[in-house]
Amino acid sequence: MVRSSLVTASLLAIVTWLHAPTICEAAEAAPPAANASDDDVKQLLSVVLAETEHFWGATFKAGGSTYEEPKLVLFTGSIATACGAVSGTSYCAADHRIYLDPAFPGLREIGSTGDFAKALILAREVGHHVQNISEVPHPDVTDGNQQAAIIRSEQVELQADCFAGLWSRYVWDQHLLEDTDLTQARGLLRALGDDQPANASRNSTAKRYGTSEQRIRWFDPGLAGKAIADCNTFADPL
């Protein structure tokens, strides 16, 4: 199981590196009383963030650059950010912060509450941070061209799925995952596809994430890959 093995190994790694990921909790409103379950989720998020920092740090170093680590901000309900008000989980490119509600309301809605599902959600947002700070090619979109904007939105989101796959391969190679974790990941991406009936209202906007088939199709190359170049959704047809 991802939780026990990943937590144990990563806590030892954090001590070894003398480095802990940057996580803070928003103080805009009084949080609900803490319980053991809340602490477990925060522990999991801390470990996952540390593992993403180790992976992307090594990846950027291999490419001759330095990885700038994002900050993770935990909040309840909604929060005002440099990118506007958000709820659920969101990455803000303006301040390099990931905003996440540790209750994972979106996962609860689709019944995907496993530990690796939570880990994958955070890994995807870290993927958006990688897009923001790296030289990943982003094709220009002509103002007012809604179809081009939709395609670019899909490309950006599918690349985040692929980056999450790269990270998943990294933790898999450390023997920290099981087949059931990857099954859980594919089940989550399938449930979040734009073609799912539960996501019909989301499809009315120009924002697209990709169909269930597309999302799994791009997660798997990441899982089989080793580098950012393996996730070039902008060069390959959707």
Automatic annotation (TrEMBL):
It comes from Mesorhizobium japonicum R7A. InterPro entries: Uncharacterised_pept_Zn_put. The keyword Transmembrane applies. This is Metalloprotease. Keywords: Membrane, Signal, Transmembrane, Transmembrane helix. The keyword Transmembrane helix applies. Pfam families: Zn_peptidase. It is found in: Membrane. It is a single-pass membrane protein. Coiled coil: none annotated. Residues 1-26 form the signal peptide. Its main location: membrane.
